[in-house]
Amino acid sequence: MVVDQDLVRHLSESSVSVELETEDMTLNIGPQHPSTHGVLRLVARVDGERAFDVQPVIGYMHRGYEKLSEVRTYPQITTLVNRIDWVSGYANEVPFIVAAEKLMEIEVPERAQYIRLILSEMARISSHLIFMASYPLELGAATPLFFALRERERVLDLLEGVTGGRFHPNFNRIGGVKPAYGSGSSTRKVIQDLPAGFLAETRAAMDKVTEAVDEIEALVAGNEIILARTKGVGVLPREVAASYGVSGPNLRASGVRFDLRKVESYLPYDRFDFEIPTGENGDCWDRWHVRLLEIRQSVRIIQQAIDGIPSGPLQAKVPKVIKVPKGETYVRAENPKGEMGYYLVSNGGQGPYRLKIRSASFSNISILPWILEGVLVPDIIAIMGSLDFVLGDVDR
Amino acid sequence: MSQFITDLFSNFWVSLAGKLLLAALVVPLVGMVIGFAEMKLSAKMQARVGPYFAGGRWGWAQLIADGVKFFQKEDLIPVEADKPVFKVAPVLVLVSTVALLVVIPFGPDLAFRDLSVGIFFALAISSLSTVGILMAGWSSANKYSLMGGLRAAGQLIAYELPLVLAVVGSVILAGTMSLSGIVEAQIEAGYPYVIVQFIGFGIFLVAALAELTRIPFDMPIAESELVMGYLTEYSGFRFLFFFLAEFANMFSLSAIASTLFLGGYWLPGIPEDTLVYAGPIILLAKTFLLVFVMIWFRWTFPRFREDQLQSIAWKWLIPLALVNIAATAVFKVFL
Description:
heterodimer
């Protein structure tokens, strides 16, 4: 009997190469899911606990603000823009107003600029405290949430005292700021100014926030499980972060020392002494830690601003009907979530001809398919949470 | 009259029915007490008030109201679900919980049934609940449920071993597998076994937490990842079954831990003839102490990742438990 040696070899090889293959499962995370911070949808191909090819699907939160602002007047648009990143609504207004003022060549009074700066930093603190609250929750620890939200309430109360709104202050006017009706000192002749005792209360609140940040650090940073879950997870190298346009604390956690507060001059940050905290590895832990350190720096800035706030008017002289001269400009600001910019094109009318909004979260989550490739399902949540995005900021 | 009652209860079937009724009553009662404790304690830890209005004072009736609410809910079963399995799963989980209570001695001669292989029975029956969880996850026709169920299965295999191995030390010391026998051996020795079996006690607690799928080992539920894991599709009274089973299981495993390691119904310095009355109170006190520790963990720790959980079990707990057994055996033979 003649044995076909080739056939035997083929058969023996084929029997070895047969492997147990399992079918991949497509897992839809969102749009309704506890930890997608709104209506983000991730379509992930999962093999057991490992996820491949994670594609974010956005647009569920689209409200058309860029288009809407073409049919609104400039003062009306502040109500739209502070709904973009609703966790730090105040900080969204500033760059837009500054862009309009830049085209109109208005000199904003010093006091108004200081008030804007103080409130912007308070918005940063409240946004970062939300992160401090929600991130441990995503890792399964429910308790830090309540401690962080309690402190955030102090900051929001102060914001509300000045502006009348906790989330949507609608406080900036072109040429200055406009405190809520009835606020201001009763002993002075100024009718509308900061509420009486605001500065002293802010100082006290900042001390409380510093205490709370220490408490949160002790509660979270000393926890072995948190360290095991975040160290070395979701590493974002600085080159990748920069090439994807990641900005804000996420970029700084990757070790890039870049902060628009030091670079741009939309608010007088150059008069204050503060540091830019950066991370080393760009992992989830660094992103958490950078935000914690940023709260401390914001407290420092606010304390210095309270010490140095000048007196004077809150509003520059502006025409009754605001018309922005023809031209275009781009103003960007360091928002709590990252770089927020407004590209404003004016035709000389009462509203913008075109307003392009560059929001931080949109660019920050463009990293998701890259960073989520081949991670475990629990790490999807840990990484997604550490990027700290808001869906209103993604979709506009 | 009293003769009649004695006769009545010496009838096997009557006494069985009575015991069954009692065991079935313990589960909702204990579930409610622990559930309420969890609500109030977590509120305390999180600077909240917790339930306040139900029942008029301190919200004591909150869980009764919740239970009534669950029974009013529509009985929802997903269209795609494997209906019989979906229906049996919560019952299986609850039954294993009730069966676990059977062997716990609440005092001298005060157990529903004092089996000679008591601890063996308890460990075997407690793993039945994980089968129920796997069934729930598989039959729900939901991807999150499926992942939760499979995680539970992996967790069971990994943590059943340290749980059993942790118990072996106490069994070697006592020379019996009967839970009453182990308590009696501790009375005879004059000290609770935790003094020599502290490693075993620690391993037992950790493995029990994993067995109960509670934080830091609650991956099968993992709200932030898997929505509610194997519970995602359950609502109404079927959800209530799981809910009660979790709390009752906490109670049973804590009671077993205090029986094995903390001297059960016995406390050093208490005269032995009063144990008939004081025993249940002492055991309950120890049990609720352990339950408190579990609740404390739940609201303090984040959760591990699935692979970290496995490496803790296989790389740390099992070798440690084996070393503990070897050391105990040496201790028993040479000392």
